[in-house]
Amino acid sequence: MSENDTNAVAQYLADHPRAMGVLFTALLLLSQAGTVAAGNHTAISGP
After folding, report:
1. What's the confidence (pLDDT) of residue 43?
2. Is residue 13 classed exposed, middle or buried when 0-12, 13-18 and 19+ CB atoms within 10 A define those classes?
3. Contact, 19 vs 12, CB < 8 A?
4. Which listed residue, of 7, 13, 16, 32, carries a Cα 20 to 30 Å from 44's Cα?
5. 44 has pLDDT over 60
6. If you write DSSP's letter for every residue of 1-47 in order, what string do you get?
7. Are the beta carbons of 13 and 20 closer than 8 angstroms?
8. How far is C-alpha 22 from the geometric centre of its chain's CA atoms?
9. In angstroms, rounded to a whole number, what is the distance separating the alpha carbons of residues 8 and 1?
10. Residue 33 and residue 47: Cα distance in Å, rounded?
11. Using an 8 Å Cβ cutoff, are 25 and 31 in contact?
12. pLDDT tens for residues 2-40?
């Protein structure tokens, strides 16, 4: 990723603050989904 691309993303997020909120929320939900998927392993032993 070049420096111009980084500046373009930063400029876009500065111009659209709601997009930053959407990206943060998506990241938060994805991190929580990973935790739930990892903790959902249950073992049933026996008949």
Report:
1. 67
2. middle
3. yes
4. 32
5. yes
6. --HHHHHHHHHHHHH-HHHHHHHHHHHHHHHHHHHHHHHT-------
7. yes
8. 9
9. 11
10. 31
11. no
12. 667 778 888 999 999 999 999 999 999 888 887 777 776
Q: Which is nearest to 13 in space by CA: 29, 2, 5, 3?
A: 5
Structure tokens at 2: 């070049």
**Amino acid making up residue 8:** A
Write out the two tokens for 20: 């930053």
Tokens, residue 14 = 């500065």
- State the pLDDT at residue 1: 54
Six-digit token string for 19: 């997009």
Residue 14 has what pLDDT? 92
